[in-house]
Amino acid sequence: MKKQHLFLFLILFTLLAGCAKPAAEVVVEETRAQTDALQAPVEILATNTPEPTVTEISQTYQLPEPPANRTRYELDLIFNYYSHFGSVTEKITYTNKSSQSLAEIMLVVPPRNYQDSYSQYSLGGDLVDWHREDSIFTFVRLTRPLEPQETTVINISFRIYLPQYPGIYGYTNQQANLSDWYPFIPPYDETDGWLAYERVVDGYNTIVGESIVNEFSDFEVSLTLVSHADLIEVAASAPAQGADGHYTYKLDHARAFTFSISDSYFEHEIEQDGVTIRSYVFMSEVEAGIAVTDIAAKAMKLYGELLYPYPRDLISIVVGDFQQNMEMDGLIMISYGIFDFYDGKQETDLDYNLFMLVPHELSHQWFYGFIGSNHAVEPWLDEALATYAELLYYERYHPESVDWWWRMRVYKMAPAGYVDSDITIQGGYEPYIGAVYLQGVLFLHEIRQTIGDGAFFESLKDYAYANTYNLATRGDFFEAFTRHTDQDLTSITAKYFMNP
Ligand SMILES: [Zn+2]
After folding, report:
1. How far is the CA of 386 from the centre of ligand 1 (A)?
2. What average pLDDT score do residues 411-420 get?
3. CA dihedral defined by 394, 399, 405, 406, rounded to 10 degrees?
């Protein structure tokens, strides 16, 4: 095994898992993955998988209207990049979309996952009586129940002190990342109530999957940079208006609003089909920062055909000064490790990491950003599909490397477990990836081989259109398939699902 291959193994499990993040102040044990990988049997399932083709579309689909009465977040953030703290006023306009009257409203406050990172000065509103805090949750008691279709306003002022932590909420010496940085109201389910979960940290102190579930909401955000604004570049979930450290943003029917801020970014942008694809990288990655916009353009084109065209004006691809990769709405973060190994010659496996992870995270703009799901409870609905999207990218643009993808991405990682596992899976992060991502890929591939490419891609497109702006469930997924195939899929679900 060549040295570079060995190193690839070392980093594979964290870098290539996609959408992973370690708990604060912890280095993910990379050698565990190496051990597993080397012991795993290597087999190739699909050596001659056909290239994904857009089959004859028997139907035309239309994107549904965004849900009415969306929650509106108005966030004013004053941020000092160099001292890593922000002062925030937040106004949440919330309409009770359920058929039940609500005596209290729940807020999820993710910064409280980090010690001393969140300091709340006030919480009030037209119907706010009092509130109590429990872990990262705040329960706001109302003076009287909020009736169905009735609207109320909650005002919060708080400060955030970013933790020194290489991740999607925290700062390093060349980056500050603000994801899930404000209190939000989780989706309310008629049967299950508030869909809000504590994060799950496994025995190796790695966070397992995604615990935060958001509704489709509207965001009006302002950012004021108070120190050396002229030196600082801001990547965000939406295009900025303004200049000189005063910016405003608007993003409708989105799941969250994220910033990545640095005084060390080098930008490159291209335009394709009316969408600006912009990269933000550090100085040593300028070439990769150009290459990544091309990879992203190809991925966007493919998903535009297979699902539907990206319906926004901008997508930002930002280097993460940490060892994970993560999707946010309108913005994806790819580890510096992936960028740094790209040498542009496309002669080694290392180059291909960028070709794997960028398509993965970009596909989450659909399978997370537009097509919602509850990824704490049914994470396969976005992660299995995003991992499968990597294969579709390889089939289209690098068919000679499809075998490599199966070997490196799936079989060397030893897929095992049930596809319908959730973030509380026994054993934590590694079994989670093996079950949800990798068994998820095998599951999707078996469906495709059973029903054929025509029905498979038609079903996928139907699922995508039908569930845009929806929190889809497995029922929605399988219903889309039954609309396009008579084949019985129960033997496949029996094989891969805990609860078939
Ligand atoms: Zn993912």
Report:
1. 6
2. 93
3. 120
Beta carbons within 8 Å of 178's beta carbon, 6+ residues apart: 77, 79, 86, 160, 162, 169, 258, 259, 260, 261
Place of tokens 């306009």: 93
Q: 360 C-alpha vs ligand 1 centroid, how far in Å?
A: 6
- Fold of domain 3-64+341-496: Neutral Protease; domain 2 (1.10.390)
CA 98 to chain centre: 26
What does the block give as tokens for 8? 């690839």
CA of 411 to the centre of ligand 1 (A): 18
Q: Residue 420's closest CA among 399, 442, 439?
A: 439
Q: What is the whole-number distance in angstroms between the Cα of residue 485 and the centre of ligand 1?
A: 27
Distance of CA 387 from the midpoint of ligand 1 (Å): 7
Dist. CA 364 → ligand 1 center (Å): 7
Give 491's contacts (C-beta < 8 A, 6+ positions apart): none
DSSP secondary structure letter of residue 113: G
How far does residue 62's CA lie from ligand 1's centre (Å)? 26
The whole model's pTM is what? 0.89
Measured in Å, residue 329 CA sits from the centre of ligand 1 at: 13
Residue 330 is classified by DSSP as T
DSSP SS3 for 396: helix
Q: Is the pLDDT of residue 163 over 70?
A: yes
For 226-284, the pLDDT digits (tens) are 999 999 999 999 999 999 999 999 999 999 999 999 999 999 999 999 999 999 999 99
Q: Which CATH number is associated with domain 72-265+278-285?
A: 2.60.40.1730
Number of H helices, E strands in the chain: 11, 25
- Expressed in angstroms and rounded, the spacing between residue 339 Cα and the centre of ligand 1 is 18
Residue-wise pLDDT for 115-127, tens only, equals 999 999 999 999 9
Percent of the chain scoring above 70 in pLDDT: 87
Domain edges within the chain: 3-64+341-496, 72-265+278-285
CA 267 – CA 271 distance, rounded (Å): 14
Residue type, 40: A
Distance 275 CA to ligand 1 centre (A): 22
Q: For residues 416 and 430, give the distance between their C-alpha atoms in angstroms, rounded to a whole number.
A: 10
Residues ≥6 apart with Cβ < 8 Å to 130: 141
Contacts of residue 104, Cβ cutoff 8 Å, sequence gap at least 6: 139, 140, 141, 142
DSSP state of 406: I
pLDDT higher than 60, residue 431? yes
Q: Picking from 17-21, 27-31, 108-112, 145-149, which range would have the lowest pLDDT averaged per residue? A: 27-31
Q: Which of 1-10, 134-143, 161-170 has the lowest mean pLDDT?
A: 1-10
